[in-house]
Design brief:
Blueprint: H1 4-16, H2 18-34, H3 38-54, H4 56-65, H5 71-84, H6 92-119, H7 126-155, H8 165-187, H9 202-238, H10 245-269, H11 271-291, H12 296-309, H13 312-322, H14 327-356, H15 358-378, E1 381-383, E2 386-388
Antiparallel strand pairs: 1-2
Helix pairs in contact: 1-6, 1-7, 1-8, 2-3, 2-7, 3-6, 3-14, 4-6, 4-14, 5-6, 5-8, 6-14, 7-10, 7-13, 9-10, 9-13, 9-14, 9-15, 10-11, 10-12, 11-12, 11-13, 11-15, 13-14, 14-15
Amino acid sequence: MFNWYLVVLSFGHLVVDLGQGVLPILTPLLAESLNLNYFQVGTIALAFTLSSAIIQPVFGVLSDRYSMPWLMPMGLFLSGCGLALTGAVGSYALLLLMVLLSGIGVAGYHPEGSKLAHFVSKEDRAGSSMAVFSVGGNLGFGLGPILAMFVLSFSGLGSVYGVAIPGLLAALIFMFLLPRFKKILTESKPKEKVKGEPAGSGNRKRSVSLILLILYVTVRSWIHAGLVYFIPFYFPIFKGITEPGYLVSTFLIAGAIGTLLGGPFADRFGGRNGLLISMIISLIAIYPFLHLNGNWIPVLAFIVGASLISTFSTTVVFGQRLLPHNIGLASGLLLGFGVGMGSIGVTILGAIADSAGLPFTMNIISVLPALGIILAFTLPDVRNGQFTAMPEEALQPQA
């Protein structure tokens, strides 16, 4: 049955995540305008990551304690307007402030939006519903550079104000719907307590499982961010592909498609199985993607992108089931903190590339899915409120 609430929330997710694709396009122009060095440019990216991703669990805790649906229109407003004002600032300090404000907007939307998506979805279709919500963010990330290039084509930084338009329009829509969102959150109660836990052991098991899940998301983020950032460097030098941008686009678009497929798979076969299959396919596909030639390269780019990001929504639902009474915190940890760790991973992988060479670094990325497979095996089977500490079934359809 069509759920228009999920479509609206996914649209908001798309709009709020446009900034993650807009900022890299703006940065060279801002660096030229303010005469910034590479360290200052890197600090801009770090400021956005810290404010948009790492602090999301804080908003998640606040979202669990207080009903704050107003965070969604506020987040949409700040995410676009913060970046739009970067073209008007005259100092590096003010530039960082605008970037921080934009990032705070992004951080504010995600926990409240994903919590609302959780409440308007049916329990047996939680993965599919979260996939609809998540694919909006995937598309926003990919469409951000297109929006930035279109807006800047008019008069460079002089027309950067245009990047605020989607956020302003979306904020108005969410303000109009705010009374309905408040009613849903008021009437909704936390999902039933997780079953199948011996007394006294449930909290410890859930805590350990949540840590393992965050580690899984961290590994996935390292692989994803490493490929996105290093494909443009690796393929021209070592594979003779002079314009590797189409590989990045193929990889990202495949991720959006994989998200839509991964949610229903997890609903039918279980989230743990979805995480496991994702990493197995990634382990098989990444190495040949980096070392084969010819027409197989874009095909493998699609397979890697689709398989790797197919679990984006699954991990969020997994975390929400591990913390059924802290939906906002679970969402913030897995949408924000875990994903934000990708930026740290790129920094570490970049340092390795500087000292040991880019091919060596890409080979490290190609074997990282093995760690993801190990982590997936250690996770419990959590579906429809069931918590099973040790694996008891594999790839059996849920009745």
